[in-house]
Amino acid sequence: MAQEEARKGPWSEQEDLQLAFYVNLFGDRRWDFLAKVSGLKRTGKSCRLRWVNYLHPGLKRGKMTPQEERLILELHSKWGNRWSRIARKLPGRTDNEIKNYWRTHMRKKAQDDRKNKASISPSSSFSNCSSYFSSNSPDVEFMPITENNERNFYDTGGLLGVHEQISLQNAGKKKVGDQEKGKSMKVYSMDEIWKDIELLSEENDTKNKPILPSTMWEYCPDSTLWMTDEEETKMFPQFYCLDNQDNTFFIG
DNA sequence: AAATATGCCAACCGCCGAGGA
DNA sequence: GTCCTCGGCGGTTGGCATATT
């Protein structure tokens, strides 16, 4: 079968909404499936990346704190470029973010070191790092997570509803910042959600592309879609939940 | 004010391992 | 045991924003 050419490049807000909606519906595991079901002309990989690095509700934005910097330095000296592993110890930070951070800041630091070395004594840039730890640093494990209890950041389940977060992102135009995470359940009507999507499709001039596949279920050959409430709750700790009585969505 | 350099970040690419057929 | 698909990971690149000259 001739696969349609996958879309590449920056994601539109409409695509983000679409992806977030379907991730909340089906969970964040089967990315190929999600890519198909959602009607997005993206690869599963691309969807996963977008979710993990940008749309995930638990994401922290903004500058690294000194504690985070210290932790990155320490973990990198321990594990090297195992960014995903390091990221697991920094809740809300992605491997990509840490990788980028390391590249820019450490490159700069290395340059500075080189300058310093020229004037002081010869030493590796890491000896510099270790002195950084020993000095003024309290316990580096400021976020104690045991190996067993290690929560994979990529698992679905953040504090902020996707719709809420995307709205915030739209309001703040990309830079989410350290906004207060949603502490209470928020209720959206179907109309609100779809209005958002419709607005976006108008803005982006999507030329009447359907947001949803004609019948969603034709993409769901898999019995896992029919789970008990309990199973579903476990799998999707946070999702849109349709209230039949007043036709609203809960995000919880 | 314009040109250039640098910083930052999103996204792609290719490789690898796990799991299923 | 082999092949295939998919997800995850690390490296890299491209483009936009900001700073500097």
UniProtKB/TrEMBL annotation:
Compositional bias of type Low complexity: which residue ranges? 119-130
Identify the domain of life. Answer: Eukaryota
* Molecular function per GO: DNA-binding transcription factor activity; sequence-specific DNA binding; transcription cis-regulatory region binding
Query: Which InterPro entries is this protein grouped with?
Result: EOBI/EOBII-like_plant, Homeodomain-like_sf, Myb_dom, SANT/Myb
GO CC, alphabetical: nucleus
UniProt-listed Pfam families: Myb_DNA-binding (PF00249)
Q: Cellular location of this protein?
A: Nucleus
Domain Myb-like per the UniProt entry, residue ranges: 3-55, 56-106
Q: Which UniProt keywords apply?
A: DNA-binding, Nucleus, Repeat, Transcription, Transcription regulation
Mention one GO biological process in which this protein takes part, according to its record. regulation of DNA-templated transcription
Q: Which Gene3D superfamilies does the entry mention?
A: Homeodomain-like
Q: Which PROSITE patterns match?
A: HTH_MYB, MYB_LIKE
Q: Give the region (Disordered) as residue ranges.
A: 108-130
Ranges where the HTH myb-type domain occurs: 3-55, 56-110
Its biological function?
Transcription factor.
Family matches, as PANTHER family: MYB TRANSCRIPTION FACTOR-RELATED-RELATED, TRANSCRIPTION FACTOR MYB48
Q: What is this protein called?
A: Transcription factor MYB48-like
Gene name, per UniProt, is LOC107830886
